[in-house]
Amino acid sequence: MTGTIGSGEWGVGFDVSAQPNGSGESHPTPGKLYGLGVGPGDPELLTLKAHRILTSVPVIAYPTMESGKVLARAIVADFIRPEQIEVPMPLPFSVARSSQPYYDTAAETIAQHLAAGRDVAVLCEGDPMLYGSFMYIFNRLAGRFQTEVVPGISSTFASAAMLGVPLTYRNDVLSIMPATLEETTLRDRLAVADAAIIIKLGRHFAKVRTILDELGLLSRALYIERATMPNQRIRPIADLDPAKVPYWALILIPSQTCPQ
Length: 260
Ligand SMILES: C[S@@+](CC[C@H](N)C(=O)[O-])C[C@H]1O[C@@H](n2cnc3c(N)ncnc32)[C@H](O)[C@@H]1O
Description:
This protein is α/β, with parallel strands linked by helices. The chain folds into two domains: 5-153, Tetrapyrrole methylase, N-terminal domain (Cobalt-precorrin-4 Transmethylase, domain 1); 156-253, Tetrapyrrole methylase, C-terminal domain (Methyltransferase, Cobalt-precorrin-4 Transmethylase, Domain 2), CATH 3.30.950. Helices cover 26% and strands 21% of the residues. It contains seven helices and 13 strands. The radius of gyration is 21 Å and the shape is elongated. The termini are far apart.
């Protein structure tokens, strides 16, 4: 299957078998690129499809933060076999550095495996198409190689389940926004939201808390970090030390509309 957006597949078709070139050598049929959503942290939240592909591809790629393996690989660590080739994709830790050259390098390494006929699964925490690192690989390679994206359970929705709160009813509009937004933009967006999820907290937590206080939203706002993981933590926002809020945390403001 190739190139049919409705089926979740993109890219040029390489379904034909090895083709001889002018010099009599044969090129392998290029491999397929997979974007695998691995869910928010609990390995049991991996889909059956993601598990099947993860355990059958010869090459697995995943982002790292310069300093070692990070979340996406850790979630599926128990399913990775020693004979599978691992391709760490280093990303800059500092936001001062653009990550785009890092994605260029990672995409080229992945492209070499694909051109050599090896299928590559790129792991992505949560869902790959929602603020996912895989999107940058997708943008670079989906036009060149057959590609399939496997959706994952997003941390945003897993967090509502862990917090035990319904998110939206009827005509409610849900806004998902990064805490990295500029302060006035964040305030304007939150002021009109029926329900909201604020991701990428980390060092932006203090700014978010101030805005929630100003808008009278603190009593509705719920905090969770490392949702679905063994070290998941749910805390009242007032108790949090801003210096200790991790990147893997979000604030959820559920809808106030509660139809009977
Ligand atoms: C770049 S976004 C990736 C979102 C991801 N693609 C998804 O669908 O969940 C990273 C942000 O998602 C949130 N996040 C991801 N996993 C989380 C978890 N297990 N618990 C709480 N927040 C999480 C954090 O706010 C983090 O800063």
